[in-house]
What we know:
A hairpin with a 2-residue loop joins strand 10 (about 170-175) and strand 11 (about 175-185). The two termini are about 50 Å apart. The chain is elongated. The chain contains eleven helices and 18 strands. With about 400 residues, it is an alpha+beta fold.
Amino acid sequence: MWQKPKSGQSIPDPNSHTHNNKTVLDSLSEDTGVLMFHGSPVSIGGGGTSSAYSAKDDIFNVITSPLKRANIAFVGDSITNGAGASAGNSWVSKTIDHITKKFVTGNPVKVSAADLSYITRLGGLQPDFTGALVAYPVSSITNPPLGIQFSFYGTSFTLYTTFSSQGGKLTVNVDGLDIQVIDCYISTASAVTPVLIAGLTEGNHIVKITLTSLGHTPNQTYLSISDIEFTKVGRLENRGVNGSVSDALRTTPSLIKTDDDVIFICYGTNERNLPRSTTFSKFDYQLNLVETKIGHKRIILLAPNPVWASDENAKTGFHQEDTSSEYKKIAKRREYMFISHYQAIIDYCLYSGKTIDQTLADSLHPNDTGHDAMFKNVLRSLELAMIRDGRTVY
């Protein structure tokens, strides 16, 4: 950390570059190895210190946005598989249940204000105070035309537009092809009307919806799109295997699928009799294979929970806290997210008054209490808001 010169220390040349920027230097500090400016992380050399935040934000958007596909895999050993927990109460089971009930519901969801960042207004349209995506009087067809554009993953969406005596015609273009014209004119009272656009091949699509024809009274045409509704597509799978080690990422190709959007990886407990350096060097290499297969960095490394002291004392290679430290270093260098179940259980015991052994079902595996603490650790780390106790309705 840069400090002002003290008595007896040399003072920079008043004409030097350093002196001219002393005010800037006064604002610099260091926090756990991260360079800070006025208390915020700063970027050096274009790489940026925000990569960890970007990784988390990217994963959060994949999980929560109705416009994104969410194929999520949990890969690891028996702790991932759910050993020690009663049925449905492992950290993975509870995470899958929460994400499924909140986001990958199979039911249509209207986009919220947060998802509007994925929707572009065309032709200079501005947001409307009513909360509608588009609500705009039109007297002529413009070039470029007025409308909206968005991308999404799925097979269909529902457009909510106002049918009225001032309605014009909207053209729906998907992936460069005009597939439907919606005539929004009716002579009766105006009404917001759902229009289903279906039959698309499952995948990513780019959609443009534009006003291409004025209404029956051209200078009184009104363009209104109040909502768009999507059904989020996703697959959540627990691929934990009892007794597994991280080399399974190389030897078992089926653990990783090319269409996985987010992968949680939690190993280490069954490898503690192996040399520390070679174990984590091999694990780092295996992550190259994972990245190559899925083509992105939405990978979350998770350090496993503390185990019995007697079990740790018998290990000759490394210990659970070493896995936490090594995984964190690997995740930081690779720009992955990192979550430490080890530290979460330590913190839980510090604040609850419980011992580590009270969170374990046996020498290695968490009981329901331990798994619940790990589940909450995942939600807290991803900033997925938890459901309060006593709630039964999602």
